[in-house]
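Worked example 3 (structure in, sequence out).
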């Protein structure tokens, strides 16, 4: 009885209770009331009484039984309708999810394949339902399946397992897999649900960070660190020359000063090429929006931002450079331009990312500003120009005194041309 549904339990109970109750009622009527009726009114009224009793009692009891059954079925149908509604709602969420959610039987044959799985792997549900999950696993990763199976059987799930899987085109993509075992009432595994997340973008970002760290380490070791060590030796020599040959010591101090200026410039180049934290945390396009909003909040200058190609993925070096271009251009506007309005345009299309920052401020002489920046080894325009050209792009400044300025750039998305 414990495994029966409530409706079946009630019907089984009614099969015993109703006939027993009817039997008891008939027994009482025949043994108690009928003899009294015969003794008082004779035989004919007894027949009429029995006809009335059985003619009304039977249909009345049947009406009660059918009414009870109807109410039970109504409750059952309402519960089933609610369950179907919840199942359809959950199924809709699963099917609409951008994450690959795959349902499998105990033998890892695919039973459900959602839209996210189609987007991730390129296979349609018709192509994959009934196939084994192994179809997505490259040969060199097959040994992982036993490890995943053992962990899931023991723990009931495995979370964020990093691996690689094959798309329909035969392309390997890095993924994170979360798999959960489904169990029946007896605790036996009845299937699995796997959530497979494509982490290609995250891996590319991690590789970019590692490459950047390596580049910074090389640049500092091969450049600034060696120059500083050399200057330390020079400083010790200057201390001795000051007592013997003050004029030579003065010349050496000038050389040290120049080398330090160049070293500071090199450090600034390294910092300029660093990937900003907002790019790592938010992604390129949201980070640009935040940069523009922060500028407007801090300066009160009206800023018009227009983005085209928003959402397109850009190579990490290009993202970093474009972000720095906008950042440094806005910094210059805030410090020097006395502008009332700024326009920032950025477009990614046809293998290029192009943009400009235009202000209505007091303007300046671009040639003079670039020359002075290169002489000083300063942070601004010289490094922007150098970085863009290093990536095969073009950089230009248009400005006249009293007529505002425009900083323009164009960078190839596929690397240096």
């Amino acid at each position: 009885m414990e495994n029966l549904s409530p409706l079946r339990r009630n019907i089984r109970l009614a099969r015993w209770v109703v006939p027993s109750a009817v039997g008891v009622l008939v027994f009482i009527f025949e043994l108690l009331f009928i003899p009294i009726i015969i003794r008082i009114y004779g035989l004919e009224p007894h027949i009429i009484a029995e006809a009335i009793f059985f003619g009304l009692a039977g249909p009345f009891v049947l009406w009660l039984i059918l009414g009870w059954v109807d109410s039970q079925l109504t409750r059952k149908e309402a519960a089933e309708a609610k369950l179907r509604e919840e199942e359809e709602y959950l199924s809709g969420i699963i099917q609409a999810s951008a994450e690959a959610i795959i349902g499998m039987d105990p033998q890892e044959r695919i039973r459900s394949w959602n839209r996210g799985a189609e987007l991730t792997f390129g296979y349609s549900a018709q192509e994959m339902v009934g196939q084994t999950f192994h179809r997505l696993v490259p040969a060199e990763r097959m040994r992982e399946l036993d490890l995943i199976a053992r962990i899931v059987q023991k723990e009931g799930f495995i979370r964020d397992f990093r691996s690689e899987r094959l798309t329909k085109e035969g392309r390997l993509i890095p993924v994170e897999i979360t798999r959960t075992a489904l169990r029946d009432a007896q605790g036996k595994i009845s299937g699995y649900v796997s959530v497979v997340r494509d982490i290609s973008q995250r891996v590319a970002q991690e590789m970019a960070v590692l490459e950047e760290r390596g580049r910074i380490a090389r640049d500092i070791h091969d450049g600034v660190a060696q120059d500083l060590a050399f200057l330390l030796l020079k400083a010790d020599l200057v201390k001795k020359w000051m007592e013997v040959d003050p004029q030579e010591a003065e010349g050496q101090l000038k050389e040290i000063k120049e080398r330090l200026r160049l070293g500071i410039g090199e450090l600034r180049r390294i910092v300029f090429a660093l990937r900003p934290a907002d790019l790592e945390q938010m992604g390129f396009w949201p980070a640009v929006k935040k940069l523009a909003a922060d500028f407007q909040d801090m300066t009160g200058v009206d800023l018009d931002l227009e983005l085209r190609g928003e959402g397109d993925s850009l190579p990490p070096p290009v993202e970093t450079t474009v972000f720095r271009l906008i950042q440094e251009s806005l910094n210059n506007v805030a410090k020097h331009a006395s502008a009332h309005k700024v326009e920032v345009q950025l477009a990614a299309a046809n293998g290029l990312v192009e943009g400009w920052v235009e202000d209505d401020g007091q303007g300046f002489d671009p040639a003079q500003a670039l020359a002075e920046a290169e002489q000083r080894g300063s942070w601004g325009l010289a490094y922007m120009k150098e970085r863009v050209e290093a990536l095969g792009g073009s950089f230009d400044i248009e400005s006249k005194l009293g007529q505002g300025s425009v900083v323009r750039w164009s960078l190839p998305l596929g690397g240096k041309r």
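Notes: The mean pLDDT is 80. Residues 43-96 form the longest helix (54 residues).
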